[in-house]
Every structure is written in C-alpha cells, then in structure tokens.
Design a protein that fits this description.
Layout: H1 9-21, H2 30-43, H3 52-60, H4 66-82, H5 108-118, H6 130-143, H7 148-152, E1 165-168, E2 177-180, H8 183-199, H9 217-231, H10 244-260, H11 265-276, H12 281-285, H13 293-296, H14 303-309
Antiparallel strand pairs: 1-2
Helix pairs in contact: 5-9, 6-8, 6-10, 10-11
C-alpha cells in the first residue's frame, strides 16, 4: 500500500526506488516529499504533472526549511524530465544558498511603531499613491490574517464595504473563503475607497499599482521593510521581517486572546484554520510553537493532544 495519497504518488515512489538503487538513503528528502504529497492532495487532488504553479505555491508561505524543500523540488523535477515526463524544474538560484525564514512575531510595541511608520509612507515616482495605499493594505493583511498575495491581489468586486465581508478567491488551495473585517477596518477601507475612486477607478484591484495592475510582492515587501527601518532608527541589526509576518502575528494574537479568556484551544483551532485558509489543522497548530514562553506553559494548552496532530519530524531532518 502506498504511503502517498496525491496524484504524484507513483512518481514519488519511483523517484525513491531509483535513488535507493543508486545508493542514496531512503530517508533523504522523504520528509519534504511527504509534506509535498499532502499539500498536493489538498490543493491539487487531480494533478499529476509538476507545474511551476504547484512548486512555487508550495514554497511560498510555509515556515519550514525552504532550502531543503527547494532542493527536493529541483531534484524531483529533474528526475521527471530524465524519465521523459513534462515537468517544471526549479531554477538553480532557488537552492544556491540556505536561508532561514523563521517567522518573526512582532511585540505590541513593535507593531505600534511599525504602523506609525507605515502611516508616514511617502509616495514615489513608481507608486505616487503609496501613501494612501500602504496604511490600509498592511492593516488589512494584519487584521484579517491574509496572505500578502491575497491582500495585494484583492479585487474591488470581492469586497463588500457595507458588511465588511471579503471574498478571498483563487487561493493557493483553490478554495474560496470569506473573511470579515472588524468595524474599524471596514470604516478605514470605506474612507480609502473614496480616495481610490480618484486615482484607481479604472483598475480592478482594490490596491492598484500605477502600472495598471496589482502591486507586486517585491513592492509590498520593500515598503514594509522601509517602514520597519524607520520605526527602529537606533537599531543597527534589525531582525529580518517579511510581509507574511503580519499574518503570523494575527494568528499568534488570536491564540493569545483565547488563552487570556481561558478558552479551550482544541475547540478554537478549527475556526482559525478555516479563517486563515489552512489546508490542514497541523498548519494551524504550528503557531502554538511560536507563542511567547510564558504562554506556552499555560495549562490551557494540552501539548499531548497537539503532538498527535503534528506529524513527527523524520530523523534526518532533526
């Protein structure tokens, strides 16, 4: 019986058979391909051809070892091409240097300083209305727990400013979902939309780029990192941050709020999973491991129950 459940199961097994025949350990890359198989089973259940969308989608936002995952995907793509199958081969630049993308969880003070700096964003020649866009875009990503792409690619037709509902369509898992803005966020979006009607009326995106399309991820990361530096002018070695860390902060803040209220996290996690669009509960549970130390010691967390949800890390990954 196969240990894999996606459309790539036969290919993964054949890949390992060949590697073992060549003298490689069967454990090498096993952990990454197991996670990849689970991802594909949830997001692309009918796919059996390795495409760029599938590979980059899997690498996009996980808090695991991106270097290991990228290396595995490049080898897997090369193998498929070698046996005559059409496949996307991850460019070599993705695996030339090991990188650490551990999430950075902002403290309350850091978050306050960061948004104060975001509010001082200056327009540029490339984006003359970024001073209007930035305060709303980053707050929406944070307060709604959005993936950065879900924020920057949000279309005006998918946001209801009367009810505060946002339709997140065409997600990485191809499962649409609805998130609801807080009343403060909705009011801010309404005011922004009045201004947007002047500078971005003909653009279908709620956060339009001056070039006529949506904001790029590079732009969104650039302006956030610039604000982070302005928020900490006296710090010579700032922690590295990504826009995605606003989503991490949303998740950890939700967990901390429930802990403060004495809520049973096992009962609340499925709601957070659905809201954030996670493919499995284990993705949501991982956020518990990045909570502040004083909170992870609380009796409100049943670590035994959560350890059963999170897959065991293979020996070769430890």
């Amino acid at each position: 019986m196969s240990n894999y459940v996606s459309g790539f199961a036969p290919q993964i097994e054949a890949f390992f058979d060949l590697r073992v025949a060549l003298g490689h350990s069967p454990k090498t890359h096993a952990g990454s391909l197991k996670l990849f198989d689970q991802y594909c089973a949830a997001a692309y259940p009918l796919e059996s051809q390795l495409t760029e969308e599938i590979v980059l989608g899997w690498l996009e936002d996980r808090c695991t070892d991106v270097y290991e995952k990228a290396t595995t995907m490049r080898l897997f793509g090369q193998y498929q091409c070698a046996v005559g199958q059409a496949a996307f081969v991850l460019p070599e630049k993705y695996v030339t240097q090991k990188q650490d993308f551990s999430p950075y969880i902002f403290s309350n003070e850091e978050l306050s300083r960061l948004f104060a700096a975001i509010d001082r964003t200056q327009p540029s020649k490339a984006e003359p209305f970024m001073d209007e866009i930035a305060p709303v875009l980053y707050r929406m990503i944070y307060t709604c727990g959005l993936r950065p792409r879900e924020g920057r690619e949000l279309k005006t037709a998918n946001i209801n400013l009367k009810t505060g509902e946002i339709l997140i369509a065409h997600t990485k898992r191809k499962k649409d979902r609805i998130v609801v803005m807080s009343d403060d966020m909705r009011k801010l979006a309404v005011k922004y939309n009045e201004k947007r009607g002047i500078f971005g009326k003909s653009n279908e995106y709620f956060f339009p780029s001056w070039n006529g399309g949506d904001m790029t991820q590079k732009q969104v990361d650039y302006y956030l990192k610039s604000a982070w530096k302005k928020a900490n002018p006296d710090c010579r070695q700032l922690p590295r941050i990504r826009t995605y860390d606003l989503r991490h902060r949303f998740a950890s803040a939700s967990l901390m709020r429930w802990i403060d209220k004495g809520e049973l996290l096992q009962a609340k996690l499925p709601y957070l999973r659905t809201y954030m669009g996670h493919g499995s509960l284990s993705e949501t549970v991982q956020y518990i491991h990045i909570l502040p130390e004083n909170l992870v010691k609380t009796s409100g967390i049943d670590w035994g129950a959560f350890d059963e949800i999170i897959p065991e890390v293979p020996e070769w990954e430890k």
